Amino acid sequence: REGDNLFELPEGAVIGTGSIRRRCQLLYIRNNLKMADLRGNIETRLNKLNQDHYDGIIMAKAVIKRLGINYLNYTTLPIDIMIPAVGQGAIGVEIRKEDEEIKRMVEKINHYHSFRAIQAERAFLKRLDTGCQFPNGAIAFVDDNNLTLEGFTGSEDGRIMLKEKISASVSESAVTGIKLAEKLIERGALKILYGGN
After folding, report:
1. Bridge partners, 154 (sequence order)
2. C-alpha to C-alpha distances, 166 to 27, 93, 100, 107, 150, nearest whole angstrom
C-alpha cells in the first residue's frame, strides 16, 4: 500500500492473497509476514487494500496491465521468488475433435513454442496429480529447440520448498514435465502435498 517492496515490509505486515501457491512461496522468503485470505473481484481486492485491511496484496500483473490500472504502487516479483501457476497467461482454443476444417484454421494461430511450454507445464501438474488448490507451480521457457522447465512443490506454511529445473529438447516437452515431477517426487513432493506416500 505504501510502495514498499517485499523486503522493505516490516515484520508482521499483512499480505492478502487467495492463492495457496503464492502464500507458500512468500512465506518461504519472508516467514515473518502475516498472510490473510483475499477474495472477490479486482475492485473488491483493491478496496480492501485501500481501506487498510492489508499492507499489501498479491495479484497477477496481467490484471493490472489489461485493466489499465496505473495508480498502484507495485513490485513485480521475479520467477526465483514467485513461480506462477501452470499455464498462467496461456490462451487455449478448444474445438470439436472431428472438425478437420477448424483444426486446420486454429493450427495457423497456434504458437509452437508456447504450446510446447504449456505442454511441459501441464504434464508436470498431471504427474503430481494436483491442481490450483495445492502449493505448486511450474514455468517453461523455450529458446530455439531447447526447453527449460522449473517447478516447485512446498508446504502451505512455507517451511518446506522443493525446487527443481530441467532442460531438454522442445520436442520432448511432455516427457520433460513428467521427469521434473519425478525429481520432486523422489524428494518427497507427494508426502508434502498429500501427507502420505
Report:
1. 161
2. 25, 28, 35, 28, 7
**Neighbour-count burial for 16-48, b at 16+ CB within 10 Å, e otherwise:** bbebbbbbbbbbbebeebebbebeeeeeebbeb
Spatial distance between the Cα atoms of 137 and 158, rounded to a whole number of angstroms: 14
pTM over 0.85? The answer is yes
Given a contact cutoff of 8 angstroms between Cβ atoms, the answer to whether 66 and 57 are in contact is no
Q: Is 156 exposed, middle or buried (0-12, 13-18, 19+ CB in 10 A)?
A: middle
As a whole number of angstroms, the distance between CA 190 and CA 177 comes to: 16
* 74, amino acid identity: Y
The predicted-structure confidence for 79-132, as pLDDT tens digits, reads as follows 999 999 999 888 889 999 999 999 999 999 999 999 999 999 999 999 998 877
- Cα separation of the two ends of the chain: 42
**Using the 8-state DSSP alphabet, how is residue 68 labeled?**
T
- Angle among Cα 118, 163, 33 to the nearest 5 degrees reads 105
